[in-house]
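Lab notebook, bench 4. Still working through the backlog of constructs that have no structural model yet. Next entry is a single chain of 281 residues. Request: give me the structure tokens for it.
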Amino acid sequence: MDRSYLVVEAMLTDRADQLQKVLLTESIDYFEMEQPPVVAGAKVSISDGKDTYPYTEYPSGSGCYVGPEGFHGTPGTTYRLSIDASVGGKQNHYEAVSTMEEPGFEVQAVDYMYLGKTNPQADSLWTVAVWGQDSPHTSYYYVSAQLNEAVFPLGLSLVMDDKYFNGQKVICFPITTLYQTEATRKQYGDCGKYLETGDVFTLNVYSVPKEYYTFYMGFVSSSVGAAVPMLQSQPSNCPTNITGGDAVGFFIACSSSSASVVIDDPFRPFYLKAFGGFPFP
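Model written out:
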């Protein structure tokens, strides 16, 4: 690789109870199997045009920068991310701008279904269904999850548009699956652990602009699992809104909605609750 890129993963939400984070790493060769090096010691802040909120690297040397306690965004406000960092031995200044969308999809409830009995080879596969109300003025969503305290990373999340349910009430829609194996747990930590009684699963839906939807689809298309170099050409770099130097990634300010379910029986058939006593007919 002839040069190093700053890799930015930054999200600002409208939730005061959620710790706002910016993750900074340095690019590595395409076929490199090691974890990318973190970018430590950077100066990171977010401004709303009136006030500037400095981020602190925590823990020190981790490349993870967190905002002040209680800091969160407001829908309709434009935010500017500022980063001063040393990448590839060169100091540079990077910026990105994002306007927070108005709330879109309201998540009213979430539930799960165990699929192990239908296929012995999928004994760690669950389907997650959602109930909610879509807004007619928002079209794109970033869908992520949280298992207890473990937040699912970009690679385990998804994006979608609402063209099939725009402005409609959504009832028992199978929005995603959980394929929990020992391999995924080793790679992603507790995000990939088997569901157990007492676990709390949370579904988060974030309203995002089309630019982020395009970025995420480019990210998926560039993954090794989606494109095989021997069979087809690799796509170009994903779109990015990071300016000021060699950088990839995205800064997104987004409103959110979420719902949780406590796992009472990891292996129960879905219909016992979802189609029997579930409060959303």
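Notes after review: The domain at 6-101+210-254 is CATH 2.60.40 (Immunoglobulin-like). Residues 59 and 249 are 22 Å apart (CA to CA). Flag for follow-up if needed.
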